Amino acid sequence: MELILALGIGVLTGSGVWLLLRPRTFQVIIGLSLLSYAVNLFIFSTGGLRTGAVPVLERGTMGHLATYADPVPQALVLTAIVISFATTALFLVLLLAARGLTGTDHVDGREKDR
Amino acid sequence: MPDALLLLTLVGLPFLGAIAAGLLPTHARNAAAWLAGGIAAAGVALVWAGYPTVAAGGVLRHEIAWMPSLGLNLVLRMDGFAWLFAGMVSGVGALVIVYARYYMAEDDPVPRFFAFLLAFMGSMTGVVISGNLIQLAFFWELTSLFSFLLIGYWHHLAAARDGARMALTITATGGLCLFAGVLVLGHIVGSYDLDAVLASGDRIRTHPLYLPALVLILLGALTKSAQFPFHFWLPHAMAAPTPVSAYLHSATLVKAGVFLMARLWPVMAGTDAWFWIVGTAGVTTLILGAYIAIFQHDLKGLLAYSTISHLGLITLLLGLNSKLAMVAAIFHIINHATFKASLFMAAGIIDHETGTRDIRRLSGLNRFMPFTARLALVAAAAMAGVPLLNGFLSKEMFFAEALSAEGPLPFLLDVLPAAATVASAFSVAYSLRFIHGAFFGPDPVDLPLTPHEPPTWMRFPVEILVLACIIIGLLPAATVGPYLDMAAHAALGAATPDYSLAVWHGFSLPLLMSLIALVAGVSLYLMLQRHLKKGVEGAPLIGGLQGQRMFERTMVFLSWRLARTLEGLLGTRRLQPQLRLVVCVAVLAAGWTVWLRGLGPGNLIPSGIDPVLALIWAIGAACAVGAAWQAKYHRLVALILLGGTGLVTCVTFVWFSAPDLALTQLLVEVVTTILLLLGLRWLPKRLDVPGARPPEVITATRRLRDLAIAVAAGLGMAALAFGVMTRFPPEILAEHFLERSYTEGGGTNVVNVILVDFRGFDTLGEITVLGVVALTAYALLRRFRPAPDSVDVPEQQRDQSAHDIARPGRREGDTVADWLLIPSIIARLLFPVIGLVAVYLLLRGHDLPGGGFAAGLTASIALILQYMLGGTQWVEARLRVLPLRWMGLGLLLATGTGLAAWAFGRPFLTTYFSYAELPLVGTVPVTSALIFDIGVFALVVGATMLTLIALARQSVRGHRAAAPRPADELAAPLAAPSAAPVAGPAATAMGDD
Q1: How many CB atoms lie within 10 A of CB B271?
Q2: Among B88, B508, B825, B976, which has the highest number of CB atoms less than 10 A from its own CB?
Q3: Torsion of CA B514, B517, B522, B526, to 10 degrees
Q4: Closest chain B residue by Cα to residue A104
Q5: What DSSP designation does B279 have?
Q6: Which residue from A minimizes the CA distance to B669?
């Protein structure tokens, strides 16, 4: 299990980094999205991978880690998902504005000098 | 008066006065002068009110806790030593303010001047009565800052600007060193409190970090006190108005350095390192300053170098590691302040009444301003060390100390008395030059103004100070004796040696040295007459040794050449190399750490591989790689594949017991995909022509390199993730939240309780970020102008319209209008259902997966579905979403819930909860966190809708902007401006709500 998820995170990171280094803004935005999946999964995995752990408490009880899923990485990742959504939205708008202003979708705002 | 009030007023009043003075109208000279004078007088009175306590050997102390856990408190502490300095700061300050009232010209913005002066006075008081080292360093930098403003007061003069900048660069850099030094010192002692530091002298001197701390602190002190080799800023600071020079360079700014050295003397002095650094700096500065002073033609320049020299004398005394020398140093600090302030004021009077300060042009002023001449004569005699004046007394003590100094190298100490006598002879010569050059000789010719006596009140401060010189000189024990004694005891403690303050000590070696210095000084002046008459600039022999030139070269090198070279070498305005660098540094840093520490096997045995999950991740990885592969030429494909990866992520969350994450991830996935789909429309066409020429060699190499980086990053991340997952997770926090989630937060969904309750403040910050992002997106899109090649109606719509035109019985646009009719009807029917789901998710969030974020995104999806299927115009004709109102409401609700806790005397964002029984619905949690979550919900709806609607509207605007094109080519330039009025109603609909 751990190995699969670790490899998955690795592939997402690799694809994300590759796209991050590309010259077109759309490539970069896709790369950032892939990278944020990888990072979210990584943060999530720091709590340990638990299948079948109870995510919600019994009413009126105190939970313990023996039976319940670790909520801290989940809370962190929940925040991270929303923030990466916000940055994707911002980056998209920036991309469109830059494209409209400069006429190109190159990340530097101009085509590479040949 | 209680200590706290006294000390706080003493420091705070000048700053308040500075603000008040700064608010006065530009030409309110008298009001500003009265205000400043009143505050300085109040300062004197406050210092005096503290006298009974400190005279009895007590310490006024007030401590305000700020960050007690870090040992950072605001500590005000005034003992006898600080009292003496506080007295000088406010006393000389009051005199300077009276003087400045008459010195400053009518057209100068005087209130600004007094505002700076008062702020400086407050900072200086802060330095001397700080009881915490970091606080001292803070006020120290404030004095640098306000001295910069004061020196550069006449900012229309280049000399003033340069002088101010140089003073700031040198003293503020020294201040940073001092800050580092006090941090080290605080580390050694374990406290930044001055009392604690002063009580641990032995620990400090024997600590391995003693030398670094000493060097750093001395760098601060020596730069401030203009000691060689940092002395050169002081003469350039003479471009300041003369009252500033009289204040900063006699009693305050430059004395801060020697104050600090004397303050820390009991704990840092007494070592060879101290002797060598402080002593060498002192003796070099003493002789060099005095020598250069003789050859200055500017009265203030002469006084500036003389100040440097006298500060060198004080530094030397402090460096001798003798308690008696320390007493002599304190005494000379007082004496120097009195005679130097009066001499600066006299120089200012001469400048004011004759229009020049050049000794070569001045002459015979004695006949025009006899009274001022007498005053200057007495003050200059005190500076030269003529008997019966105060300068003589401390100089005698200095000679005695020079004779009896003990140090590591006896030979050098034999030279010290000779050096002292030579420096003293120089000081006689320059004092003589000041008096003889300005006041005696033939009548002056060709002066810019006709000289006359200054106004009575302008001369008054000089009179007071000169009177002090005389009575201290005549009756030292009766006048200054008790104060000096008090200051020395406060600085040195019980170990203060006995000393005698008497005018006559009998025929002794120091007296002989004084006489030799007087005779030698007079003869030297007479011998130099011919050279001085020539009017050559600069001192002979050492003309090439110009600190200023070196400073300027260094500045040019640092701020221009080095910066440009580094920018050329390392800088780029291109994004790709920057990102490449960031990624490489991250990979290398992680790899380096692993290499140093080793990764090793974890302490958890990896669980077995589930084939289903393996298959799912095979798909996920394929999607990710495919997205990376296709993102350039096939954006839609890449987007779909990205969605595939997102879904796999979502499934992973479900798999590993995180339903909340899966829910949110799924919803975010939907909204992100819609967002990106809306953006696709405005990107340029890029066709992957099969059989096109292969990429150039450079491009191919670059791709290979990027591929290598990406593979390295991926492998590294995989290894890291595996390493983390096979280790036992830290669980301290998890247990904490799991135990308290229901018992203290009233919710069974721990993740949600963390978000809205335990870490509610983070969430508040997060939704604020979301709001800011949405507003930014909105603002950017308001100014959006589509690129020309994206403006036209899409190809598909053109085809459909052409089809309409070709068929009889169909009007143009019929097909477009009917587009996706059935799905849009379904979407309309689904709208309330999805809305209800959103409300359900919101309400159950505290106990079951859901919550404000998920609900907000769901509601947004319901709305955006209508936009997608019904079209922007159709939806807006029927339903007005006012995203800004949603956002405002959300933020208000969330913040209001937090603030409401205050009303019950609880900390910000404390939640209240209980459970209520509702008919039909059942048990419902009633908690203030729900209101907070509703705030989150409203904000998420608002922010998402603001962004999505703004994007969706672009197509409407784009079409309208494109419309006039085919009709008339002339209208094309108008197309862009016409987009603004078109956007008008839409923009106002969103902006005004």
Answers
A1: 16
A2: B88
A3: 170
A4: B684
A5: I
A6: A85
| Number of compact structural domains in chain A | 1
Residue B906 backbone dihedrals phi, psi, to 5 degrees: -105, 165
Helix, strand, or coil (residue B778): helix
For residue A52, the chain B residue with the least C-alpha distance is B657
Each residue's pLDDT tens digit, B829-883: 999 999 999 999 998 888 888 888 999 999 999 998 888 888 787 888 888 888 8
In a domain, A75, yes or no: yes
* ipTM of this predicted structure: 0.95
For chain A positions 26-55, those within 8 Å of chain B (CB to CB) are 26-27, 29-31, 33-34, 37-38, 40-42, 44-55
Report B:263-322 residues touching A (Cβ under 8 A). none
Inter-CA distances, B988 with B238, B585, B953, B992, Å? 59, 47, 13, 5
Q: Which residues of B touch A60 (CB under 8 A)?
A: 742
Return d(Cα B384, Cα B431) in angstroms, integer: 6
Residue pair B299/B347 in contact by the 8 Å Cβ criterion = yes
Give one DSSP letter per residue of A28-62, joined into a string. HHHHHHHHHHHHHHHHHHTT---SS-B-BPPTT--
Number of alpha carbons in the 13 Å side-chain half-sphere of residue B749: 25
A72 contacts on B by Cβ (under 8 Å): 733-734, 737, 754
Chain B partners of A20 at a C-beta cutoff of 8 Å?
579, 583
**If residue B760 lies in a helix (H) or strand (E), which one and from where to where?**
helix B760-782
Alpha helix segments (H runs only) across B109-252? 110-128, 133-151, 158-189, 194-198, 201-206, 210-224, 233-236, 242-248
pTM beyond cutoff 0.90? no
CA-CA distance, B168 to B160, in Å (whole number)?
A: 12
Question: What CATH number did the domain enclosing A37 receive?
Answer: 1.10.287
Residue A12 has pLDDT above 70, yes or no: yes
Range of the domain at A27: 2-51+63-102
Residue type, B974: L
Cα distances from B499 to residues B327, B397, B417, in angstroms, run: 8, 10, 20
Helix B253-268 vs helix B210-224: angle between axes, to the nearest 10 degrees?
A: 160
The verdict on A68 touching B (C-beta cutoff 8 Å) is yes
> Among residues 219-238 of chain B, which lie with CB inside 8 Å of chain A?
none
Residue A24 lies in a domain: yes
Query: What are the φ and ψ backbone dihedral angles of B68, each rounded to 5 degrees?
Result: -60, -30
pLDDT of residue B560: 82
Q: How far apart are CA B645 and CA B662, in angstroms?
A: 13
pLDDT tens for each residue of B155-179: 888 889 988 998 999 999 999 999 9
On whether the CB atoms of residues B439 and B373 are closer than 8 A, the answer is yes
User: In chain B, positions 735-764, which contact chain A (CB-CB < 8 Å)?
Assistant: 735, 737-743, 748-751, 754-755, 759, 762-763
Residue in the block written with tokens 């190499």: B701
Determine which of A34, A40, A43 to mutate to test the interface with B (most B C-beta atoms within 10 Å).
A34
A17 within domain boundaries: yes
Chain-chain contact of A71 with B734 (C-beta, under 8 angstroms): yes
Instruction: Write out the E strands in B528-573.
Output: none
Q: Is A96 on the interface with B (CB under 8 A)?
A: yes
CB B721 within 8 A of CB A9: yes
Q: How far is CA B72 from CA B75, B125, B180, B184, B239, in A?
A: 9, 19, 15, 15, 38
In a domain, A56, yes or no: no
Residue B22: which residues within 8 A CB-CB, separation 6 or more? B111, B112, B115
CB B904 within 8 A of CB B824: no
Contact across the interface for A30 and B583, Cβ inside 8 Å: no
